[in-house]
Amino acid sequence: MPARRPTSPQRSGSSSRSRRPDDLPPTAWAVLGLLSFPGERTGYELKKWADASLRFFYWSPAISQIYAELRRLEALGYVTSRRSEPDEPRAKRSYAITGEGRTALAGWAGSADDAGPPVLKHPLLLRVWLGHLAAPDHLRAMVTEHIARTRGELTDVRDALARADGVETWAHPQIALRWSVRRLEAEMELAEAMLTDLADLAEAGDPAGPSALPGQPPKDSPTHG
């Protein structure tokens, strides 16, 4: 009996390409989306661009996540890469989207599937929710710090929007960045209102303990069920 032939890299790649595009996680689509604009980019450049765009309305993946997704996308045939020329001052690998990758990305972006609800994870609100275990001054200081940090984020996104101004291929990213400006402005307004609520609570001298929840007996839950 002849020996079984080893699987070649090409055969392995073909197997990878048999996966359905909707099997990819959002991180992969985001990285592929960064490559859908003109030009090729290194992993480091993709990370910088994610920090200057995606993080304002979605999230910014770690550099290790970006490289992991690039390897996955290349195995699927959605991305190609090339090493820098020997005469270039620094060795690097640049990535570009393929025609197959652009088709898959367009299919995902234009899918009729529900995009899903936004997911809010607000670390500061979690601390405020547990405010009965913290000093009032500390809570107010955290909210004040959050307002200052949000103001800095607002400056960053406005700078990003200014850099995108007039660039035809960035028309849709500009819409996302303008939304991000409005969101951050609203975040600052909400935080200011929360600061006022905390000040009013402190002035009223409310014990704010677990057993002091309005309309609830001790050890009961503040929600139904």
β-strand amount: 5-15%
Compute the number of strand runs. Answer: 3
Question: How would you write the strand order of the largest sheet?
Answer: 1-3-2
Helices, by number, come to: 8
Order of helices and strands: HHEHHEEHHHH
Quote the distance from N terminus to C terminus: 67 Å
Shape, principal axes of CA atoms: elongated
Radius of gyration from the alpha-carbon trace, in angstroms = 24 Å
Biggest sheet overview: 3 strands, antiparallel
The amount of helix comes to: 40-55%
Low-confidence stretches: 1-18
What integer is the average pLDDT? 84
Please state the structural category. mainly alpha
Description:
The chain has 225 residues and is mainly alpha-helical. Helices cover 54% and strands 5% of the residues. The chain is built from 8 helices and 3 strands, in the order H-H-E-H-H-E-E-H-H-H-H. Helix 2 packs across helix 4 (63-75) and helix 3 (43-51) crosses helix 4 (63-75).
Features:
225 residues; mainly alpha; three-stranded antiparallel beta sheet; 8 helices; 5% strand; disordered N terminus
In short:
The protein has 225 residues and is mainly α.
What's the topology here?
Layout: H1 9-17, H2 26-34, E1 41-42, H3 43-51, H4 63-75, E2 79-83, E3 93-97, H5 99-109, H6 123-129, H7 136-164, H8 171-204
Antiparallel strand pairs: 1-3, 2-3
Helix pairs in contact: 2-4, 3-4, 7-8
